[in-house]
Design brief:
The chain is an alpha/beta fold. The protein folds into two domains: about 140 residues, 3-Layer(aba) Sandwich (Rossmann fold); about 110 residues, Rossmann fold (3-Layer(aba) Sandwich), CATH 3.40.50.1860. It is built from eleven helices and ten strands. The strands form two sheets. A six-stranded parallel beta sheet has the order 4-3-1-2-9-10, sandwiched between helices. Helix 1 packs across helix 10, helix 4 packs across helix 6 and helix 8 crosses helix 9. Bound molecules: D-glutamic acid. D-glutamic acid binds next to helix 3.
């Protein structure tokens, strides 16, 4: 008995996962997707590993209740801490963003890589482990950038204040002579214009969205969706107009189905 739908579940603490969703939709435009943004409990990146695992399991279980066939953890913080717990709890493929982001940085030719992310992602050392598994001798300079997520959520993606903050975080990495800046947080691609100006043209900027979408397409492509309504449905633990405005601008499409959900029940 074959399934007639193949549904992808994606979650992030907020709007950052939209950067991954966008790339998935560009490779698999007919996808049937359920997106969960745990906006009410954002940020994850300043929380303890235990809390991040607990929240991630609640997100994964909520999406599993929507009959997804694969889970994309479009949050580096959750990917850094909760992948094994999610894999154990759910009986479907679970795809994180850290391995694909690391692969993208190495494939782009990175030899001296600046990794930026939330405090919790940087503290976990997940990127060092993933990058060194690919190239043991790669040079890595890591920096937590805790103010970037609130700036993105505020919608100040291309703003003079954001640029000042970016200098504060990145100047030291740039002085260390990095050739690649790896965006280890799915919110950060929304800051690309600012990051490009601050990093200059000589530094490659790499994120995990495209490479994660390729992994998803590699699995999903083996069983194309059957006919039927294909849609993207958004569940948010706190619905705000700003999320929808920013999401629609970035995705370049309307967010038609948005529902609020309480993940703590
Ligand atoms: N977008 C999430 C990530 O990739 C982090 C946002 C947060 O701190 O909640 O790590």
């Amino acid at each position: 008995m074959g399934k007639d739908r193949n549904r992808i579940g994606i979650f992030d603490s907020g709007i950052g996962g939209i950067t991954v969703l966008k790339e998935i939709l560009s490779l698999l435009p007919d996808s049937d997707v359920v997106y969960l943004g745990d906006c009410a409990r954002l940020p994850y990146g300043t929380k303890s590993p235990r809390t991040i695992i607990r929240y991630s399991l609640q997100c994964g279980q909520f999406l599993a209740s929507k009959n997804i066939d694969m889970l994309v953890v479009a949050c580096n913080t959750a990917s850094s801490h909760a992948l094994p717990a999610l894999e154990e709890a759910l009986n479907i493929p679970v795809i994180g963003v850290v391995d694909s982001g690391s692969r993208a940085a190495i494939d782009a030719g990175g030899k001296s890589i600046g990794v930026i992310g939330t405090p919790s992602t940087i503290r976990s050392g997940a990127y060092e482990i993933a990058l060194r598994a690919l190239v043991p001798g790669v040079r890595i300079h890591s920096r937590a950038c805790p103010l970037f997520v609130p700036l993105v959520e505020e919608g100040w993606c291309d703003d003079a204040i954001t640029e000042q903050v970016a200098h504060r975080y990145l100047d030291e990495l740039l002085h260390q002579g990095i050739d690649t800046l790896l965006l280890g947080c799915t919110h950060y691609p929304l800051l690309k214009q600012v990051l490009r100006r601050v990093a200059g043209e000589g530094v490659r900027i790499v994120d995990s969205a495209v490479s994660t979408a390729r992994v998803v397409a590699g699995i999903h492509g083996t069983f194309l969706p059957a006919d039927g309504a294909r849609s993207v449905v958004y569940y948010l633990s706190d619905v705000s107009e700003r999320f929808i405005e920013l999401g629609e601008v970035f995705l370049g499409r309307k967010m038609e189905y948005v529902y609020e959900v309480d993940l703590c029940v």
